[in-house]
Each structure stands twice: as structure tokens, then as C-alpha cells.
Write a structure and sequence with these properties.
Layout lengths: L1 E2 L8 E4 L7 H14 L3 E4 L8 H17 L5 H7 L12 H7 L1 H15 L8 H8 L12 E6 L2 E7 L6 E3 L6 H6 L5 H9 L4 H24 L3 H12 L5 H4 L1
């Protein structure tokens, strides 16, 4: 079984029976996880990363690529990958700080090694941050750091070139401002994905490949596309799974 962290807030448990698993045992365990623990249970195939981490880390890698080459800033990415597209308000980089960059790097490395897919390779700045101990919230600094100033505490963001923590800048995208009037997440994601500005370019370069990858691997990792969608909703708190997004 693979519980998602923090289990208080994320309901997903991936249950991975093997060919040798007694069906009665699997059924009893699934009932216990569902009825006694109140979890959302998804049966996953015994493949590296199972379902949710395989897709989630792939999407994270596509996002980090655009930051590594200087096309988008940390603040811009978090403005585009949070509530605007039906994801948690912690978005990409705040989520990474909560989970721990060391955990992210380890999971990505295992996926790259076991699947022999370079698409999971993290950019050099992730290894550098792990090496210096800037692994996120548990270390007091990661992509963000709380800084005490004369007017109280504020959150600074890491300059990935210098390693210094600097004041945040508010990201502005005309399409994001316009999409705020769309209360339902489905038309909002569609409008942003098709936007003819940098927000649309970002989503087409990150969300687009992630949806294609989910479709490519779905038969290998899950019994159905419904299970893929459930895994991403329950494990990564996406409002829409990849196939629902399509």
C-alpha cells in the first residue's frame, strides 16, 4: 500500500496486489482502507511510481525545465499552477517545499533509473539545493524562506542563479485575470490553455505533455482511465484528473 502524505488531508491510498496476492486478502484490505480508514483506494499496477507519482513527477519535471532555462520565474509558475487551474493553492514550488526537495529528487531519480526515462531528470539546481540542505519547510528554506524584517515576517523566494532569497514579485498574466470570472474549473483551464499569452504558452508546454504522457502510460499503470483520474484527484488534490481535463 502507498499512502499519500499528509494522509490527514490527501485521501489516496494506492493498493498494489501482485500475481501472488490472495484475492480474498486484497478484498479484505481494500474494505478496511475504505470503510475503516475512510481512504480513497485505487488499485495500481506494480510499476515504478505506481500511478500518481509517475504522472505528478513527470509534470513537475516539465515545469522545472521552463524555470531552469529562464523562461518563467518561481512566482510566475506558482501563479499558473495553483487555484487558477484547479490545483492546490500551494501550487508547484510551495508543494515541493512541503513535501521536501530531497524526497522529490529521490522519487525522480528512482523513476529515471527504473524506467530508463530521462524525462524524469531534475535540473541541476535541485541537486544543488539538496546538497546544501535547502530541502524545504522542514529545513527552514527551500524555494521559499520566511524572513524576519522590521515590519514582521515575510516570505522571500530563492534566486536560482545566486542562491540568495529575495522579495517576491507578483506575477501578472492578462489571461489569468480574465479567467477569474469563470467559477467552474473546466472552462477556466480551457481558456488558460488556449490563451495567446505566456500563460497559455506555459500550459501548452507543461500540461499538454503531461496529459499525453498520462494517456500513453495509463494501460501500464492502472486498470482504467477512471482510476488514473481518481489517483490524481485524491493524491495530488487536482480538481480534474488528466482525462477529465481532456
Amino acid at each position: 500500500t502507498h499512502f499519500f502524505n499528509p494522509p490527514r488531508y490527501l485521501p489516496l491510498v494506492e493498493m498494489i496486489p501482485t500475481a501472488e496476492t490472495d484475492r480474498a486478502v486484497a478484498a479484505e484490505l481494500r474494505a478496511f482502507l475504505d470503510r475503516r480508514l475512510g481512504k480513497g483506494v485505487v488499485v495500481a499496477h506494480d510499476r515504478p511510481g505506481f500511478i500518481a507519482n509517475r504522472i505528478g513527477v513527470y509534470g513537475m519535471a516539465r515545469t522545472l525545465e521552463l524555470v531552469a532555462d529562464g523562461r518563467y520565474t518561481i512566482d510566475e509558475v506558482d501563479a499558473l499552477t495553483g487555484v487558477a487551474i484547479g490545483r492546490p493553492k500551494s501550487a508547484t514550488f510551495r508543494t515541493a517545499d512541503i513535501a521536501g526537495l530531497d524526497i522529490l529528487a529521490k522519487v525522480a531519480s528512482d523513476l529515471e533509473t527504473n524506467l530508463k526515462e530521462e524525462a524524469f531528470r531534475m535540473p541541476p539546481f535541485v541537486e544543488a539545493m539538496v546538497g546544501e540542505g535547502a530541502v524545504g519547510e522542514k529545513a527552514g528554506r527551500g524555494f521559499f524562506q520566511k524572513v524576519k524584517g522590521a515590519d514582521g515576517s515575510e516570505i522571500h523566494v530563492r534566486d536560482l542563479t545566486t542562491g540568495a532569497y529575495v522579495p517576491r514579485t507578483k506575477a501578472k498574466f492578462a489571461s489569468v485575470d480574465a479567467a477569474r470570472s469563470l467559477e467552474d474549473v473546466a472552462p477556466r483551464v480551457k481558456a488558460l490553455f488556449l490563451a495567446r499569452d505566456r500563460a497559455g504558452e506555459f500550459l501548452r508546454a507543461t500540461l499538454g505533455p503531461t496529459l499525453l504522457y498520462a494517456a500513453q502510460i495509463a494501460p501500464d499503470v492502472a486498470d482504467s482511465i477512471d482510476d488514473v483520474d481518481r489517483a490524481m484527484r485524491w493524491g495530488f488534490a487536482w480538481e480534474l484528473g488528466p482525462f477529465e481535463t481532456w
